[in-house]
Inverse folding.
């Protein structure tokens, strides 16, 4: 049972190993939504995610004999680091099975805490099956990343901290992968204040909990497809499912494109790096049809590799029309390129790439194609640049941007 006493015990236990992640007030999202929006920045936690809480509390409840057998888990990254870090604190061996698609930064950091890492399968569910197989073979103690009541209790300590700082919170937005975080947070929140609204948030391409709640039982998705790798789970936890069903008020799903835009907003307005799964609760703020409420979005993690970060930033700039590409057809004559560049410059566009295709048609005297990739301030500025090019007779065509 998830009881208030257990949550209090877990809160005391995790204090010895976790950082205090104070709420951050967001002027940007508060003004945009007409609410008072706060972030719970678990992206700034030790190991870069909230998962350390559940892993440490679970390991603290094990017997010395269970710890001595060695610990094993499966994880897309954040739980892996939590178990590795907590196991090191207890002097226990840790074996972590991670999907082959796990970002390199998460793999390397897990190894840095002394854990043995095994890469297996494309998604979490494949890695979990392998971890259970190894646990049976070697006698390891398995630490489930979400379908474990002790782990969920440890994750729920986040809610305890939120209430201590903001007792009159109205809404808590919590990301959902397998459901451990949502279980702990929603259960404790309802114990402390039955009137609070706790909203789960899933990626549209991996909404296993929403599908299960609609079915009234745990169901498995045939596949998952989302950039939110930390929540790319096919099957939610069966042990925790009754708690989620009872205590969550709603589940919102968000598209990957919304996560991309949320990343851009967080970097530009809050100077914070939050991984795609952690951005679920940020993207969901726009989906709440409320005003004048105190809302806390849990930023569940910040472990994002630089390559992914670069890709997400570029995609966000394109979605916001701050980078776009146009194609114009020109006669193949000296000086024509400079005339087009002059039109763009006078419209305050900033050219970042040119592609000049002389073989666009057989008759080069008739036309060559010039593709111009440029920066703009946003949709209105983009329209102004296109209008200027059209007025000068270039008939610009917007094409897919590839940087």
């Amino acid at each position: 049972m998830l009881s208030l006493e257990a949550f209090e015990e877990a809160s005391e236990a995790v204090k010895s190993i976790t950082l205090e992640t104070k709420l951050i007030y967001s002027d940007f999202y508060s003004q945009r939504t007409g609410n008072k929006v706060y972030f719970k920045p678990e992206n700034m936690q030790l190991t870069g995610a909230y998962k350390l809480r559940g892993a440490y509390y679970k390991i603290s409840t094990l017997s010395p004999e269970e710890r001595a057998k060695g610990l094993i888990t499966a994880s897309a990254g954040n739980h892996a680091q939590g178990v590795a870090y907590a196991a090191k604190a207890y002097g226990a061996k840790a074996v972590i099975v991670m999907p082959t698609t796990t970002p390199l930064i998460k793999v390397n950091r897990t190894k840095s805490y002394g854990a043995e890492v095994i890469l297996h399968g494309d998604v979490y569910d494949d890695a979990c099956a392998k971890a259970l197989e190894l646990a049976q073979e070697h006698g390891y103690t398995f630490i489930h990343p979400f379908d474990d009541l002790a782990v969920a209790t440890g994750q729920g300590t986040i809610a305890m901290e939120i209430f201590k700082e903001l007792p009159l919170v109205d809404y808590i937005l919590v990301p959902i992968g397998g459901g451990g975080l949502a279980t702990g947070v929603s259960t404790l929140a309802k114990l402390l204040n039955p009137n609070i609204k706790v909203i789960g948030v899933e990626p549209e391409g991996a909404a296993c909990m929403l599908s299960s709640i609609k079915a009234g039982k745990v169901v498995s998705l045939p596949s998952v497809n989302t950039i939110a790798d930390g929540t790319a789970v096919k099957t939610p936890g069966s042990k925790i499912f009754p708690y989620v069903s009872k205590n969550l008020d709603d589940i919102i799903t968000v598209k990957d494109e919304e996560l991309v835009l949320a990343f851009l907003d967080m970097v530009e307005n809050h100077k914070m790096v939050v991984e795609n799964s952690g951005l679920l609760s940020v993207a969901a703020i726009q989906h709440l049809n409320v005003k004048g409420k105190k809302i806390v979005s849990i930023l569940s993690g910040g472990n994002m590799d630089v390559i992914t970060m670069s890709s997400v930033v570029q995609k966000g700039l394109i979605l916001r029309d701050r980078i776009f590409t146009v194609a114009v057809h020109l006669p193949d004559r000296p000086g024509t390129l400079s005339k087009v560049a002059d039109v763009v410059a006078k419209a305050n566009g900033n050219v970042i790439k040119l592609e000049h295709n002389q073989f666009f048609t057989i008759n080069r005297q008739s036309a060559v194609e010039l593709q111009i990739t440029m920066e703009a301030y946003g949709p209105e500025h983009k329209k102004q640049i296109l209008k200027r090019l059209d007025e000068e007779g270039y008939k610009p065509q917007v094409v897919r941007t590839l940087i």
Remarks:
- Residues 278 and 300 are 4 Å apart (CA to CA).
- The chain is about 45% helix and 20% strand.
- The longest strand covers residues 323-330.
